Amino acid sequence: MKTRTRNFLLALTIVLMSLKLFPALDLYALKFLNKLFFDERTFAVITDMGNAFFITAFIIPALIGYSNFNSKINSVSASILVIPSLVFGLFIQLVKNLVNAQRPAGVGDININFLEPVFQSNSFPSGHTASIFIVCLIWLKVALTNTRGYQMHYFVIVLCALVVSLTRVIVGAHWLSDVLASILFAWLFTELFLKYFLKINKSKIAVYSSWGIILSAWYGVFFMEVFDYI
């Protein structure tokens, strides 16, 4: 792991621990960001971009297509994005159920605006943040390894993922600590996956299964109420 990445993860851990040790800071961050909640429709669209179904159906195919049609960067297969994202998503859901932390709506006397539907439990960590960051980080690592002149890709993609993630706090669905924890987990999982498990996802079974999952996500987006779970 590079020194710059290690320092970033250390700083992120310190901020996360500070928010958890001093809940008043987490509450202040929530209320501060919630003031940006100026339009329900706008933020509903942005925050839904972190929905795992939307990411699998649209963002993953878009990233795959871009990497395959741009000869100057590395090709990224569906399995390299879908399989680890699925495993990571299951891990995040397990942590959410084990911790069962209260969301902002589950704490009384918090005067903020909420985006419907409102949930009161399973706050830590943020599933939407985890979903968007794991896909973006793995794609950046695989597609842009040993390439030059694509630093702007890192900035734009990470910025977009960060904007989607922060909307989780803006709409009152999560605490800032939930979002930061998901970013930390996603970064660590990406490093672990690329170091030990990258070859697993190159089999034809993994590739075909991944496209099957993508098609299933399309079905979910158009025929199921997948966006009711924010």
Defining traits:
Vanadium-containing Chloroperoxidase, domain 1; mainly alpha; 69% helix; 230 residues
Number of domains: 1
Report the biggest beta sheet as strand number plus sense, adding barrel if it closes. Answer: none
Q: What portion of residues is helical?
A: 55-70%
Structural class: mainly alpha
Describe the structure.
By secondary structure, this protein is an all-alpha fold. It has one domain (3-228): Vanadium-containing Chloroperoxidase, domain 1 (Up-down Bundle), CATH 1.20.144. Helices cover 69% and strands 0% of the residues. Helix 1 (3-21) runs antiparallel to helix 8 (176-196) and helix 4 packs antiparallel against helix 5 (78-99). The protein is globular. 35% of the residues are buried.
Secondary structure layout:
Layout: H1 3-21, H2 23-34, H3 40-48, H4 52-69, H5 78-99, H6 127-143, H7 151-170, H8 176-196, H9 204-223
Helix pairs in contact: 1-2, 1-8, 2-7, 3-7, 4-5, 4-6, 4-9, 5-6, 5-9, 6-7, 6-8
Write a compact overview of the structure shown.
With 230 residues, the protein is mostly helical. The chain has one domain (3-228): Vanadium-containing Chloroperoxidase, domain 1.
